[in-house]
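Hi there, hope your week has been kind to you so far. Thanks so much in advance, here it is.
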Amino acid sequence: MLNVNEIFYSIQGESTYAGFPCVFVRLAGCNLRCKYCDTQYAYDEGQHLSLDEVQKKVFQYNCNLIEITGGEPLLQSEIAELIQTFVYHGKTILVETNGTQNIDLLPENAIRIMDVKCPGSGEASRMDWNNLKRLRVQDNVKFVISHHEDFEWTIKIIEKYDLLKKVKVLFSPAFGLLKPDILAEWILERSLPIRLNLQLQKYIWDPNRRKI
């Protein structure tokens, strides 16, 4: 059984897959309380569904891209079996994780989108830094940046772990806290080969809109 907050069909907005139609499986429960969290409703709201029930809801959409997100999906070990089932049916699987849990617990065929928590989140001390050594070239690392101190901190982390040679790196402005054009200027000033990552769904729809 999985504790599921919501399953919905939308536009993928926060990775190198941004812009593609995607089915999202949002699992309930999170071990962090980031200051800018926009899915606080997923902390506690959920219903227990069997793997078959989850698959049935997902397969009602004609879509080959599926993202498992949260909350923090790696708190539920059953996702490994769910991922393998989706892969068996030819789906591309993304898993968005907050970086506090061992990402190697995920099946090899899952693409990990790891959100490295900057100081502005209030949760940077909770990171499992060994995860940065576990990344593969197909994975994404996302930094949500709240202010210039976060930006400078992030550059040091990228250099320390040599991330630009290992993985796709994305910078996101914390929505409502940092304007995208300011972050874009910082990236250009440093000539960084970084992808600016905007939350497309918040520009398409009301940023406070629930997905269901």
Observations:
- The chain has one domain: 2-204.
- Residues 2-204 form a domain with the TIM Barrel fold (CATH 3.20.20.70).
